[in-house]
Request: fold
Amino acid sequence: MKLKKKNMLKTTLTALMISAIGTTTITAAIGTIYSYKTTDRILSIKNGDSIQNDNNNDVSLLTLTQGMCVNPKNNTTFFIRVNTDNTAAGIFKFKEGSKKITAVKANCSYLGHGNDMAFKSDNAKTESGLYIATKYDSADIKADSKKSSVVCIKTDGSLGHRYDVRLTPNSDPIPIGGITYDPDSNLFIIRKNESRQYYIGYFSNTRESLENTHGSFVITGSFQINLTVDGTDYSNYVSQGICYRNNTLYVPRVKKNSNDKMSNTSAMLRYKIGKLSNFTNKTNSKTVSAEQTVALHRFGTNQNYKFEIESFDFYSDGRKIFATNEWDYDKTSSKTSCFYFVN
Reply:
């Protein structure tokens, strides 16, 4: 499908809701998130394209892009590609202004679905590196010590630490489907699998009550997001990677067609949640719904075309970048992963 050079059709929905953080009222921002143009496409990866790999590992079966994040110090973009059954994944990178893709870590067996990733720079509390939300479920993590809720990979491809996210010290680890990092507070936001439940905190390499080679996640706060906006329910849209910047949480979601395939319609939900240090409630029972603005975009009219926004982040100058998987379901050879800049 050829995307038109003019801005795509946009439907903007806004809603105002009241926060449950004390008596604070969170005001919804008004306006669209994106003004999309095809000239914003900065990089495309078609199946079969060669990727520089110093170890000569075969990465041809890694065909689907998932999590993506940016190192804001040098605007290097890191992203994950997985095979179709999530048994192998690789981490890749490209620098701003370059179309050269380099493998950081190829054909790794413990990244799971690699659903999301966050970059964290040096800090004494938590090690630096790429934090990857594996989406492994509790049974997988308990059965295999190489599997974890979140894994940290150094930017040189070496293993940092594995982390299990538990709501209480002795409870089962939970699957994590979204992760983002805030350098101002030195805190992460993680999402429990596909749910509306989010936790704020930091990763620790010590455990107090369990003998385990994995580190833990120290929860400092929690909240829930509301997925009904202006009478429209987005809970049937599929959750993707998340991003937090300037007191705002960005949550892309993708609609499914009637045949349960991903459609060409994606929604970006924007939550003005404020500073992460304001969230002090650690329990599930006392969570908060933030206010939101939703920008809904339809890319073309071919309903048999998949345009799935997978992940979202910012460059250091405020430019937004998102990654997609897209193809015509009638032409499986057309599978392409793309990266876009947006205003």
